[in-house]
Amino acid sequence: MKVRFAITLLLALLLLSARAGALDVKLPQYERVSLPNGTVLVLSEKRDVPLIGLEAIVRGGASSDPESLNGLSSLLAQVMQHGAGDRNAAEFSEAIESVGGELDASADIEGLRISADFMSRDAELMIELVADMLQRPTLAEEELEKLRERSINLIKAAKGGNPGQLLSAYGNAFLFGAHPYGNPVGGSEASLGAITHEDLLAYYEGFVGGDRLIISVVGDFNLEAMKARLIAAFGEWRAAASALPALSAASKPGGQRVLLIDAPSATQTYFWIGNLGVAIYYPGRAELDLANTVFGGRFTSMLNTELRVNAGLTYGARSTVSRRLLPGPVVISSFTETSTTAEAIDLALEVLETFRRSGLDDDMLQSARNYIMGQFPPRLETAPQIAAQLAMLEKYGLDASYIDNYGPALEGASTASVGAVIEEVYPSADNLSFILIGNAAAIREAVAKYGQVAEMSIDEPRFRN
Asked: Checking DSSP bridges between strand 433-438 and strand 257-262, what pairing results, if any?
């Protein structure tokens, strides 16, 4: 009895500690510096460990890829890591590894991103390497050819072995249509195959420059000295030659419609169901996070419990809410055996309607609050994590209150306020786009009830019809 009481007390204290931790999470003090060429620096000293994290973002990303050359920004990010400044690919890699540093580049839908994590004693080398990557990349044609072929082969391998990896590419292309948010970040077989070395060089000159650069640095350094180093390294960098495309919000599709991607050898159906949601500026952020945690954001969510645990129709079901400069998708995704395709989708829709109708009760709300409060603080502990958050805030024009007020907003959420967000953000079952990858001959008739069906073969070298 004493042991049980002690365990109960310990668990209660841990929950209280997690809640208190999340409520107390505040961004450290930082300085923002806007340089004459448009580059923005964000700097914060963090002297607890001898490490420095750097996050650089060049606004643009896959949303600025030309329509016929989707994947260009992603390929550029890859090639930039294979030689820059006076170092060839091997020498560049060796410079990073010799000091135990980490340096990676990638692209997402709204930006080109470079992340670095170095010992503070190697700060000058870190800045030199990042400056070389951004301003003096070799962009060798042979590296482009190797990485382009590798990217194409990865898509082909996914189509043959795990097509679920491609669900979001098909899904975004279908949901957003010609809108730039529908661009596949990694490109398609067709678009990647069309990219030439001249395209890469032109894209770099046109869309990468100091006027759209954000550099966030957090860690063990003297702020004034670090500021001087960054100004010297980036303050004179040229502007990008081309204007970024002007983006407006995509139109939200109404009614039900189906895209069926025929994979004749598939023994499972992969499904991605959703519609447009909200942007990163949505005021009900805390309520939306609480709602999605309960609906499909954790193992014990409603979707996973019903589809996996209770019905045994899948090994996993989840929901995601992507928030960007403009509204992104709200999605249910899972997979099931071909013979249970309609059963699994019907159950997912039933869970969605129950969720929209009933919302969260007090126990669900408190469980979700405790879960998030236990997850949130550890994401803001290390220098690279904080650097990434500061860069993200600058990218979207947000201030420290976005982080500092999050814990109190979670604590202040009620079942009523969460219910209002659910009704506003999550689409009803009669306003959904269904993207299915599976054996069309086996499931075509069954899925026709979800809306007008458009079909394409998985062998087509693109993600749009």
From this structure: parallel
